Amino acid sequence: MTDEPTIFIGNKPFMNYVTAVVMQFTARNAPSVTIRARGKFITRAVDVAEVAGKRFLEGNVTLKNIGIGSEAFQNEDNKTIRVSTIAITLERIKEPEQTL
Amino acid sequence: MTDEPTIFIGNKPFMNYVTAVVMQFTARNAPSVTIRARGKFITRAVDVAEVAGKRFLEGNVTLKNIGIGSEAFQNEDNKTIRVSTIAITLERIKEPEQTL
Question: Which of B68, B85, B86 is the mutation pick for testing A, counting most A CBs within 10 A?
Fold first, then answer.
C-alpha cells in the first residue's frame, strides 16, 4: 500500500492528464507518479507518459517501471470479459547532493 | 543488434498475432519474442502479450521487459507528427536443470 499519486486515463481532453502528471511533480513535489489505464485507453497512457516525461519534465523525471496485466469482469449478458491494463510509473530524478 | 524474433502489431485479425507469438516459442523454439506496436495499436500489443503469455503459454514464458518511446515523422502537410511506441519482450522460462 502506498500514497503514490495515481492518474487514471479516460476520455477527458488529453492535456488534462498531462497537466495532472506534471502538477504532481511540480506543485505537489511527488517523488513518483503512476499513470494507469485499461483497454483502449492504454495507448493514451503511453502518450501521456511520453509527453509529460520527455517534453514537460525532460531531465527531471525518468521511467521507473511499466507493468501490464488483465482484469476480468462480467458484462450485462453475464459473460466474462477480459481487459488489459497498464501502469506506468515516472520517478523524479534525484538531484546530485551538494558538496561543500 | 539481435536475431530475436519481433512481431509487429497491425490491423490483421487479433489471433494472427497471438498465434505468431506462440509459434515462435513452440515451433521455432525462440528464447524470447518482442511484440512491437505504434500509436493506436499499442493497446492491441498489450492484449496480444497478455493472451499469448498468460493463456496460451502460461507457465512457459515470463515478461522480460517493456519499453515505451516516441517516433516523429512528417505527414503530407510537412508537419511533424509524434507517435508513441511500445516493445514488450516475453522470455521462455528456463527449465530447471536435470540432476542425476
Answer: B68
Chain B residue with Cα closest to A71: B50
Tell me: the pLDDT tens digits for A32-72? Answer: 999 999 999 999 999 999 999 999 999 999 999 999 999 99
Considering its fold, how many domains does chain B have in total?
Answer: 1
SS3 of B85, please? strand
Reported ipTM: the value is 0.86
Q: What is the CATH number of the domain that holds B26?
A: 3.30.110.20
| Per-residue pLDDT band at A1 (split at 50, 70, 90) | very low
CA A63 to chain CA centroid, Å, is 10
Which strand (E) or helix (H) includes residue B48? helix B42-51
> Mean per-residue pLDDT for B76-87?
93
Chain A hits for B49, CB-CB cut-off 8 Å, are 68
What single-letter amino acid sits at B72?
A
pTM metric for this prediction: 0.89
Containing structural domain, residue A51? 6-92
How far is it, in rounded angstroms, from Cα B56 to Cα B40?
Answer: 24
A97 within a domain of the structure (yes/no): no
Output Rg (C-alpha) for chain B, integer angstroms.
16
Residue of B nearest to A68 (CA): B46
